Amino acid sequence: MPTETPIRLGVNIDHVATLRNARGGAHPDPVRAAALVASAGADGITAHLREDRRHIRDDDMRALKDATHLPLNFEMAATAEMHKIVSEVRPHACCLVPENRNERTTEGGLDVCGQHNFLTPFISELSNLGARVSLFVDPIDAQIEAAGSTDAKVVEIHTGAYHEACLGSDPKKIIAELDKIKAAAEYADSLGLEVHAGHGLTFQNVQPVAAIPQIVELNIGHFLMGEALFMGLAAAVKEMKLLMEDARSGGLY
């Protein structure tokens, strides 16, 4: 059903830095990309500062905070090193994600249940620094319940399994994964958590997720950067935002 609740698009610009780092130097500049996606209608900028600095670097985070008027979402592992950088940069938000040095990309949600005693004070410290803390979690009730018992204000639902299902040819699997996301969003909302979602979302699969009324923000990066090679970054952002808003209004794009 259509909903009047707006939906925001956060654009992850990590892979602009990936391309820059492949050759060295300063081009292409993630800050320039952030300005471009802002002018195209994005509502926020996300950047993941990894332990191995494979794409975004420390000076990128500082430059992005100074240069963009959009909220900066600092995606990070829950480590003392990242805590220190947050205390210097003071981003609008911090999204805590699991991090494995050997992974190509984030492979799953944070184990809030298993790390609850460690994460709870860490989240409180980030909140005291003025950051709005989000936890990247799989669509599992126990993880969402654990998130709700911390100072985190937001959960971001991992949509990777839905993406994988969409790559296959079994509509039952797609529906099953989408239903998990819907149920998780409803449960998180009932706990008073703001609900975001992301990972593997594309022009082809975004609308069913964007139509879920409890979800107020989608964070999308890799797909948009890939499409930018063919249609331009601004055009890709505008197309994604159009699809999201169309789904939100109940239209058929």
CATH class: Alpha Beta
Give the termini separation: 15 Å
Low-confidence stretches: none
> How many runs of DSSP E, i.e. beta strands?
8
Strand residue content: 15-25%
Strand order of the largest sheet: 1-2-3-4-5-6-7-8
**Helical content class:** 40-55%
Describe this structure as you would to a colleague.
- With 253 residues, this protein is α/β, with parallel strands linked by helices.
- The protein has a single domain, classed as Alpha-Beta Barrel (TIM Barrel).
- The protein has helices at residues 14-23, 30-39, 58-67, 80-89, 116-128, 141-148, 160-167, 171-190, 206-210, 222-231, 233-249, and strands spanning 8-12, 44-48, 72-76, 93-96, 132-137, 154-158, 194-198, 215-220.
- β4, α5 and β5 form a beta-alpha-beta unit.
What does the secondary structure layout of this molecule look like, with pairings?
Elements: E1 8-12, H1 14-23, H2 30-39, E2 44-48, H3 58-67, E3 72-76, H4 80-89, E4 93-96, H5 116-128, E5 132-137, H6 141-148, E6 154-158, H7 160-167, H8 171-190, E7 194-198, H9 206-210, E8 215-220, H10 222-231, H11 233-249
Parallel strand pairs: 1-2, 1-8, 2-3, 3-4, 4-5, 5-6, 6-7, 7-8
Helix pairs in contact: 2-3, 7-8, 10-11
